[in-house]
Write a structure and sequence with these properties.
Helix content: 25-40%
Number of strands: 41
Shape: elongated
Strand content: 25-35%
Number of helices: 20
Structural class: alpha+beta
Radius of gyration: 40 Å
Distance between the termini: 90 Å
């Protein structure tokens, strides 16, 4: 926000050096990003009249002029293309000092003497135009100071960064109040005295509010006999310094009040309002309005509309008016709207419509509902034309008074490290509008926040105000000593360990958006109901993912398109599904691990190998898998992963039709596991076993089992039977043949037996072999293949 120093002085007698005042703003949390000094470096520049212009005999691009700066003709060489006889120009004579300490001297240009310089706006820091000289309007006496001719006064303009939690500082008066309180100088908002006519405002216009939840307070005033024209020079100059372009006296008065007091207002041409009144209501779905920026806006039920008395929209409440009733040159009667809108409604509408204005930026942070009458009166005073109708139309759903905030001096000192007393606290809060009274107990205050501080609702908000006005620089620095030390939970530690395990296995981590394009979930084989985002950032990504499969397949396809088909990717992310039976308002949100293995290292076998690494790394040696079908996966190369009786995910291979739908050729191995089941809830401690120095013995066992018997179940039986002597167990062959019979297959396992304290004898190996054969035969009705 740009804040001119001269404007601040309307509210308090600031006499500090501009830089010193800027340091005060900084210490109050209103960070000064730049200070522009206005009127510096033009004290020596005067008005001059161009008497004659002729060509330079030795140069094509410059001309010789004669100018009168009040003391007779002077020859000046000028290269500007727009110089012409009869013009009034800005002239810097010999010896003048221009901005940036540039001194004008008498110099020779191609043999012709130049007795000064005709200046451009850029050379005087009065504008950005450097293409030609500055030509003055009006009639000015040659030799008179340029600053006086242009009405330029010395000033300083601060560019302040105002944070979102400071709605009171979004205006000149709010900045002045804060700085005056810190500097202990008087602050006051000047009172406005209006001369009203005899005709009541109710005879000229009417207002109605159908949606008080969107607009709790709505007021209107009327002024007739208005003459639309340029604003007073002071108003136009201040608006320009604040970064706004002057338009007309009516529009400028509204902008001036918004910048000065923080209250947006909107003037309407009363004669262009059917029914000569305003109505506030919710927009109907699909309703359309052309706003002042000539853009057609499609509205929804959350938007607040300002309508004429017949219900036709003429503006979006708190954001922007419509084009149908804007102020124009023929306007003679003005209806001024000044209102208080619900901040969250304005914020939602502004974001959804992609329309942010100076008014909406203030309304969504919170304006002062009790300052509306002052703002309307200030508008009429600045307008200075026409007859003001008597009274004000005012519809106000006044809320119940907010309870006082309890503030403890001891709490202030404990948080800030200060030694303030009760009187100090009250004296720091009083100048910025907070009324503090003793609560009866020593060191406790009951504080009532002013209406222009909707952000101050809790004790900590008041502590911050005390800190700001006591001065952060006066608070001694200290290192906080807290008994609470941050740490990762067991779940977070194991999840981080899981990432390390996968990276160690040669799998790279991917990060993708939880939002997918409509149809991505279906292409990946998911057939359940999906959840759509109510307000997506992009229409092409509007559906929440129900699986990690489409996200990682898109990543694989992207790598493949760049000729990198051999990729191994994993992602730990959340998926969103409609709850079973639609219980509860929130989706079923789960955190999953997804692994995609494509190219030369793809396929179900590679996926099973990575799964073994993951389960071993997480200490889940009791896990087992069983063949099963799963959405999006190959019907005969997929298995469910069990922990006990709970299914925690699937491992296998992506269905070729699914991978083909994403433009991927070849096999893609896939793992998807629920982290809630995979990651232990408590730390897992694994005891390292000593490495045996004795030789091992390998035996192979091939069992003929029913097709329904999972290989993992057979492996569990072997492990239990072999006991402590089993060092390693691997399934190395699956065989089917007509000679074996229908519905059966052969599973061949290699057992590595090893003892920690001795070399195994043939009898030891034979005993283990017999136990394993008996265990598998008993548990699974299996026979040993000959």
């Amino acid at each position: 926000m740009r804040v001119p120093l001269s404007w601040l002085r309307d509210f308090a007698p600031f006499d500090l050096d501009p830089v010193a005042l800027g340091e005060t703003f900084d210490d109050l949390g209103m960070v000064v990003e730049a200070i522009d000094l206005i009127g510096e470096g033009i004290d020596d520049v005067v008005v001059a009249r161009v008497l004659d212009v002729r060509a330079h005999p030795k140069a094509d691009r410059v001309r010789i002029t004669e100018v009168d700066a009040g003391s007779g003709p002077l020859q000046v060489v000028c290269g500007a293309p727009n110089v012409a006889a009869g013009q009034l120009v800005a002239f810097a004579p010999v010896g003048a000092m221009l901005p940036d300490d540039f001194e004008i001297g008498r110099r020779q240009v191609r043999g012709e003497w130049s007795e000064g310089m005709i200046c451009s706006a850029r050379e005087l820091d009065l504008g950005a135009d450097a293409a030609g000289i500055m030509v003055l309007e009006g009639d000015h006496e040659p030799g008179s100071p340029l600053a006086a001719a242009l009405g330029i006064e010395r000033d300083a303009v601060y560019d302040l960064a105002i944070e979102g939690n400071r709605p009171d500082a979004n205006c000149i008066a709010g900045v002045a109040r804060d700085a005056a309180a810190r500097l202990r100088i008087p602050f006051a908002i000047p009172e406005v005295s209006l001369v009203e006519g005899a005709k009541p405002v109710a005879d000229l216009a009417a207002i109605s509010v159908e949606s008080p939840d969107l607009c709790p307070r709505f007021t209107a005033r009327v002024v007739t006999g208005v003459t639309v024209g340029p604003s007073a020079p002071l108003v136009a100059r201040r608006l320009t310094l604040a970064g706004m372009r002057p338009i007309s006296n009516v529009v400028d008065a509204s902008n001036y009040v918004m910048l000065e007091l923080g209250q947006p207002t909107h003037p309407y041409d009363l004669d262009r309002l059917p029914g000569r009144g305003l109505l506030v209501r919710r927009a109907r779905p699909g309703e359309v309005l052309v706003t002042l920026d000539e853009v057609e806006r499609r509205l929804g039920e959350e938007d607040c509309l300002i309508c004429d008395a017949t219900g036709t929209p003429v503006g979006i409440g708190g954001i922007m008016g419509g084009a149908s009733s804007e102020i124009s040159a023929p306007t003679t009667s003005v209806l001024l709207e000044a209102a208080y809108f619900d901040p969250m409604s304005i914020a939602r509408s502004s974001k959804r419509l992609g329309l942010r204005s100076e008014a909406s930026a203030r309304f969504e942070r919170g304006c002062d509902p009790e300052g509306i009458e002052r703002a309307a009166a200030r508008f009429l005073a600045i307008l200075g034309t026409g007859d003001v109708a008597a009274g004000i139309l005012d519809l106000w759903q006044r809320p119940a008074p907010a309870p006082p905030i309890r503030l403890r001096t001891a709490r202030v000192n404990a948080l800030l490290g200060t030694e303030l007393v009760d009187g100090d606290v009250r004296s720091l809060l009083a100048p910025i509008g907070f009324r503090a009274e003793p609560a009866g107990d020593s060191g406790v205050h009951l504080v009532v926040a002013p209406s222009f501080r909707p952000d101050a609702t809790t004790e900590i908000d008041l502590v911050e105000e005390v800190a700001r006005h006591h001065g952060y620089s006066r608070i001694p620095r200290s290192v906080p000593n807290s008994p609470y030390v941050g740490h990762l939970t067991a779940y977070q530690q194991r999840r981080r360990h899981l990432r390390d395990v996968l990276v160690g296995a040669g799998v790279s981590e991917a990060a993708s958006s939880p939002l997918l394009a409509p149809g991505d979930n279906e292409r990946a084989g998911y057939t359940g109901e999906l959840i759509e985002a109510s307000d997506p950032l992009a229409r092409e990504e509007s559906v929440l993912r129900a699986s990690l499969l489409p996200s990682l397949l898109k990543a694989v396809a992207h790598n493949t398109s760049y000729r990198s088909p051999d990729v191994a990717l994993f992602e730990i992310g959340k998926v969103f599904r409609v709850p079973a039976g639609r219980r509860g308002p929130l989706p079923d949100e789960r955190e999953l691990l997804g692994v995609a293995l494509a190219g030369a290292g793809g396929g179900a076998v590679a996926a099973k190998q990575v799964l073994d690494v993951v389960l071993d790394g997480m200490g889940r040696t009791e896990a087992r898998i069983e063949a099963a079908a799963a959405a999006g996966l190959h019907p005969t190369r997929t298995a469910r992963v069990f922990l006990g009786f709970d299914v925690i995910g699937h491992v296998g291979e992506v269905d070729p039709d699914v991978s083909g739908a994403f433009g991927i050729e070849g096999r893609v191995g896939w793992i998807e596991l629920d982290l809630a089941g995979l990651v232990p809830t408590a730390p897992v401690y694994r005891q390292a076993a000593p490495v045996s120095r004795h030789p091992s013995s390998d035996i192979d066992l091939a069992f003929v089992v029913d097709e329904s018997v999972p290989a993992s179940a057979v492996a569990v039986s072997i492990r239990q039977a072999a006991g402590a002597l089993l060092g390693d167990l691997r399934l190395f062959d699956v065989y089917r043949n007509d000679r074996l019979g229908d519905g059966v297959r052969s599973l061949a396992f290699r057992l590595r037996l090893q003892a920690a304290d001795r070399t195994l004898t043939d009898a030891d190996v034979a005993e283990v072999r017999a136990r394993c054969i008996e265990a598998v035969a008993t548990a699974h009705e299996a026979g040993l293949r000959a």
